[in-house]
Amino acid sequence: MAISACNQKSGEEKKSDTKLIKGLYSFGPEIKSFTDCEEGREYWVADSAKTLELAYSNFNFEKPYEPVYIEVECHFIKSDSLIVSADFDSTMVVTKLLKMTKEIPDGPCR
Known about the structure:
By secondary structure, the protein is α+β, with helices and mostly antiparallel strands. Helices cover 16% and strands 39% of the residues. The protein contains three helices and five strands; from the N terminus they run ααβββαββ.
């Protein structure tokens, strides 16, 4: 914990790192992943806003890992290899959920 506290950025610097990103989010007991529609890159997801998982669970899917389309404000950090699967080198930290829908738009996300 002390190491991460030393790496904390000021609020102003963090804001400039924030991005608006759109793509597909999947959630389940073992994996929380996001696929960027434009680049096709996959990221582990950390929900700092504490709204992403709640909104996903409100859809009441019968099975985990059903993809939904999301638009979020976020920033990216290097994944902690002790927590995150080796398949994900970066973690997307969601700071604000803007939109979540079961309707996946036509285009690169299909």
